[in-house]
């Protein structure tokens, strides 16, 4: 069978064959594998899409070596995704490598008491995790400098407005995108000079806003114009791709479907959660990071809801949730473990190579757009 052609302006702007980007996915929590590691980036870029490295969990040195590793494995374009949060709290001013157990003891009393109560009742070990002070999220300026020095083809800001670095990125031939969850931010980020806006709907995995993808896309497109929009949130096959293009998007940014691929970086247990999930098998909670994020449902939510505690601010809540998830895994309490994932989880029934996922998506979208719509829809 001859290869399908499915091209949009995005392909010309990025030098890729198909308008499909695998989303930048960091680890769900501290100590977990990176959702979009080097292997996924390379597989997606080699298959004709554009793979985006989830940079959020790295320290500066790891970021640079991952970028260099990608370059050594493919000469195709790729991206790097970083989080650029505003107003990190004081605790972010730490130095060196700090044991999570120590940070936990400095949390407000009710949180320490709840943490110890959970640990005791479920027989969890004391946390052996550490956090390093040189993570890219805490040193965004230096991380961006590395991306510019390495001339990463596409810089992606998963959180925050990357406007301040666009000029420097463009000067070395890089492109820049910003991920948003509502029309207001689509307009704001577009006006800051980025090349593309990714509009991610409420159904998406990880940090998520309040507006569903179907309602968000046309409003984000209008708000961002003339900057083109890439669709995200709930896209898992060629139907989602075709619908996004029909809406006026120039491509798609796909997270959960590529996370549940052979090269996707989630813990096996979390991949399993996605396979077992129905369309209702996720929920939005501040439990994991202090910001609203979508995760597969598990018993961890029940005990958190029972605590009656409000979430701590980002990234302090990450410390609390990470320590407990690690404890659940170590103690074999699998029913308390799940990771970031979107509502499209219910569609995913098999862990496949990323290349197959991408090519099937292309094939299905091309069939819808070239044949099926003409058969099913009467237009005069
Ligand atoms: C495990 C996981 C980790 C994620 N980490 C990040 C991240 O570090 N930076 C980011 O911009 N988005 C992150 N996201 C969100 C994705 O980039 C993407 O917007 C989302 O997955 C799209 O919705 P979908 O899951 O329905 O495809 C993450 C999503 C998942 C599932």
UniProtKB/TrEMBL annotation:
<keyword id="KW-0285">Flavoprotein</keyword>
<keyword id="KW-0560">Oxidoreductase</keyword>
<dbReference type="GO" id="GO:0051213">
    <property type="term" value="F:dioxygenase activity"/>
</dbReference>
<keyword id="KW-0223">Dioxygenase</keyword>
<keyword id="KW-0288">FMN</keyword>
<dbReference type="GO" id="GO:0018580">
    <property type="term" value="F:nitronate monooxygenase activity"/>
</dbReference>
<dbReference type="Pfam" id="PF03060">
    <property type="entry name" value="NMO"/>
</dbReference>
<dbReference type="InterPro" id="IPR004136">
    <property type="entry name" value="NMO"/>
</dbReference>
<protein>
    <submittedName>
        <fullName>2-nitropropane dioxygenase NPD</fullName>
    </submittedName>
</protein>
<dbReference type="InterPro" id="IPR013785">
    <property type="entry name" value="Aldolase_TIM"/>
</dbReference>
